[in-house]
UniProtKB/TrEMBL annotation, chains A, B:
SUPFAM superfamilies: Metallo-hydrolase/oxidoreductase
Catalytic activity of the protein: Endonucleolytic cleavage of RNA, removing extra 3' nucleotides from tRNA precursor, generating 3' termini of tRNAs. A 3'-hydroxy group is left at the tRNA terminus and a 5'-phosphoryl group is left at the trailer molecule
Name used for this protein in its record: Ribonuclease Z
Cofactor note: Binds 2 Zn(2+) ions.
Cofactor: Zn(2+)
GO MF annotation terms: 3'-tRNA processing endoribonuclease activity; identical protein binding; zinc ion binding
Keywords: Endonuclease, Hydrolase, Metal-binding, Nuclease, tRNA processing, Zinc
Binding-site positions, Zn(2+) 1: 61, 63, 138, 208
Name of the gene this protein is made from: rnz
Family matches, as CDD domains: RNaseZ_ZiPD-like_MBL-fold (cd07717)
């Protein structure tokens, strides 16, 4: 499972329909939160994501609309009895912000917060995937993130294994793990029954940024790109000044990076209720584009599995 | 106009239905906010209260669920171009909290925050009303608030004035303001056409507290008492330990104080969807009781005007 849940899709000003920035990724049951705007804990309750499995929060930058949900969320997790430490990653000053955010409201946390400073180029290696910090271009120190799964072992050809006389059971697993087995005096090699390794899936989240080379490179052939699309073309100047992207700019980047799918987020309050202009301008450039909305959930599938998963 | 808008009615843990504590009072167009839990700015948008007319925030205590909405709200008001200073009142440490809350998120506020420490017994005098800080009994330094309007001038007897030969217009206002006028050589005194002064309205908000004498005294004959009713009777022990009130305890206090109307708030997550047990237990003791829900709005009218206003 690799599922993305949009908890907050608004711009700097929330609206009744759109919470400030927060995107949850559920990877095989582990929850990773990217940005955590005010009200994120309630959105998690609405989306029924649970909180126990939240291992890490990745902050793109320390503008208030990306972080103000942290104090309430950590307090609620503490009330609920959490004792596992929580990692909070972010650009410069993450330690200082984590300290301030934890100092609010008298409460003593029952778990540790482990704040980790990331520079563009840093990689957080996890079991089965890694998170890459990307240079982005915003008005304050900022980073984007790419979640890249490790290459996955090839598919196990069950029929072929049975043909070769391997009995279903532990020997199947052994072969799939890459070990050879012996059946009735004959050595069976893994490559006889296991297909080509499959690439891992890749999700890129730009955070708030002007379109930039670094996000483009990181997004090459991504299965999903989630990009800043604060404004429409009629606000191009303001996009430049506020260091955000227009929907069309995001679509151009998605096209050039050859991504499978583009979801636009950080939608300015002026388009909160009607994001049609953003969608229209993006679609002219890149077909497989969606405007995120709060509580939108989507499964991320490999390009060559899209057909299969949509059956 | 004296209108109360419940923006957040939940307990320490918000739920999908109930935001953390926040109560807005709109008095003749001036907005006063009592507590400001996470998500208050969005609730203000949903209730269409506006933000420009917000003059003051009164904090009952510095538990996170009562204050975490402040940073987002002040940032949004700054984005919207606010330049008028904002008063934030609260018990001990309000300065320190205001400093921390304003320090979050890089932004420079365009307006001043004027933090004011209140002790029980302090009175904030305003034009036409005053706010009294009340001693309350919670697990951290805390205060409740009574909003008491000044005595209002009596009703103007229009028919009597016309009988006395006063022409409708500026002389009516003069008499209503308490000045005598001369009509065709005869002096008309204000007391001939203006009724008895009418008492101002009184609203009491307990904040989080055990039932206590100080809130009882302050609530005597109040037009509206808004009281902590976190728990039902089956959680009486937990109410004692966590220093909250049960619905029945709040109702008993309302009865003893002879208030006109009681609204229960700070509803624990366990009753968030179904607060029937709280209502049933309170109603046995005090009839005119309501369980607050998010976005509930109510006009506060004087006891002797209730009949008239309900026509």
């Amino acid at each position: 499972m690799l599922r993305v849940i949009f908890l907050g899709t608004g711009g700097s000003l929330p609206t009744p329909e759109r919470n400030p920035a927060a995107i949850m990724i559920n990877r095989e049951g582990e929850l990773l939160l990217f940005d955590c705007g005010e009200g994120t804990q309630q959105q998690m309750m609405r989306a029924k994501t649970g909180m126990k499995s939240l291992s890490s929060i990745f902050i793109t930058h320390f503008h208030a609309d990306h972080i103000l949900g942290i104090p309430g969320l950590i307090q609620t997790m503490s009330f609920q009895g959490r004792t596992e430490p929580l990692k909070i990653y972010g650009p410069h000053h993450v330690h200082e912000f984590a300290r301030i955010l934890s100092a609010l409201g008298y409460y003593k946390l029952r778990f540790e917060i482990d704040a980790v400073d990331l520079e563009p180029g840093d990689v957080v290696k996890r079991d089965g995937y890694s998170i890459h910090a990307l240079k982005t271009h915003h008005s304050v120190p900022s980073i984007g993130y790419a979640l890249i799964e490790d290459e996955r072992v090839g598919r196990f050809n069950r029929e072929r294994a049975i043909e070769l006389g391997v009995p279903p059971g532990p020997l199947f697993s052994k072969l799939h793990r890459g070990e050879q087995v012996e059946v009735k005096g004959r050595i069976i090699l893994p490559e006889e029954v296991v297909g080509e390794p499959r690439p891992g899936r890749k999700i890129v989240y730009s955070g708030d940024t002007r379109p930039c080379q670094e996000v483009l490179e990181a997004s090459r052939d991504a299965d999903l790109l989630i990009h800043d699309a604060t404004l429409a073309n009629d606000q191009q100047e303001w996009a430049l000044e506020s260091m955000h992207s227009t929907a069309e700019e995001a679509a151009r980047l998605a096209k050039e990076a050859n991504v499978s799918r583009l979801i636009l987020t950080h939608i300015s309050a002026r388009y909160s209720e009607n994001a049609e202009p953003l969608l229209t301008e993006a679609k002219k450039v890149f077909g497989n584009v969606t405007i995120a909305q709060d509580l939108l959930e989507t499964e991320v599938v490999l390009r060559d599995e899209i057909g299969a998963s949509q059956k």
